[in-house]
Amino acid sequence: MSDTATSGVKQGFQLKSASVSMTALELYYFDDGEFEDVLRDKISQAPGFFKDIPLIISLEKYQGLDSELDFFKIIGTCRRNNIHVIGVRGGTDDQRRLARGAALALLPGNGQRDRTHEAEQADEAEAAVVAAPTNAAGDPPPAKIISQPVRSGQQIHAPEGDLVILAPVQAGAEVLAAGNIHVYGPLRGRALAGIHGAESARIFCQSLEAELVSIAGHYKISEDLQDNGWKSAVQIQLRDDLLVVTPLDKA
């Protein structure tokens, strides 16, 4: 028996699994001045969404010619704009070494150059698959159903399946799901479907009035949405990396 258990003193902390919505910055090349200009432009489109968010730098499509990617400059620029870089996805061995030197977490990517890194984690990945929750029939997880309005400041999260909301989602609220999102009422807040990368996920709502919608990391803000299906029943899906809004009566 441990000394802690014997003395009756409660442990100072516990480690638990957590599922957090992440935004990825897909970097194609890096120019310090241009990077900050473009970042500020993006933030100005949805300042409330980007304030104090955790950010992953994705290098899976990086084509810069520089051998020494300066992560400290990227981190500093993001911090000046209230964005917190916490890790790097993908990249070459040299890039990942530099990211580690900048105290960033290393996440495996899906590109060819990350196959070696992923192979090193094969045992862990296999164990995770074995431990994944399933039912006897092997069906996907059941939908999470919310019957009350989602108020401003609330966040509703369905980390393993669809999210069904039988009431309005108010401005300032956020709903997230690994699968589809169904809102049987006005959608006025933020809705993020396919948060783990499921590009087949969709968003359905009875009245599109959203501050922001996102599928698998691709997003549109309210200004982009008002030209198509605004305040009407729609479905939103991803086609060729673009979010497409379709009236439900024409879906």
Automatic annotation (TrEMBL):
Any Pfam family hit: MinC_N
User: Keyword set for this entry?
Assistant: Cell cycle, Cell division, Septation
* InterPro entries, sorted: CAP/MinC_C, MinC, MinC_C_sf, MinC_N, Septum_form_inhib_MinC_C
What's a BP term from Gene Ontology annotated to this protein?
Answer: regulation of cell division
User: Known Gene3D superfamilies for this protein?
Assistant: 2.160.20.70, 3.30.70.260
According to the entry, every stretch annotated as the Septum formation inhibitor MinC C-terminal domain falls at 145-245
Indicate the segments forming the Septum formation inhibitor MinC N-terminal domain, all copies. 13-84
What is the protein's quaternary organization?
Interacts with MinD and FtsZ.
**HAMAP family associated with the record:** MinC
Q: Which PANTHER family match?
A: SEPTUM SITE-DETERMINING PROTEIN MINC
**Known function:** Cell division inhibitor that blocks the formation of polar Z ring septums. Rapidly oscillates between the poles of the cell to destabilize FtsZ filaments that have formed before they mature into polar Z rings. Prevents FtsZ polymerization.
In the record, the note on similarity to other proteins reads:
Belongs to the MinC family.
According to UniProt, the name of this protein is: Probable septum site-determining protein MinC
Biological source species: Marinobacter sp. MMG032
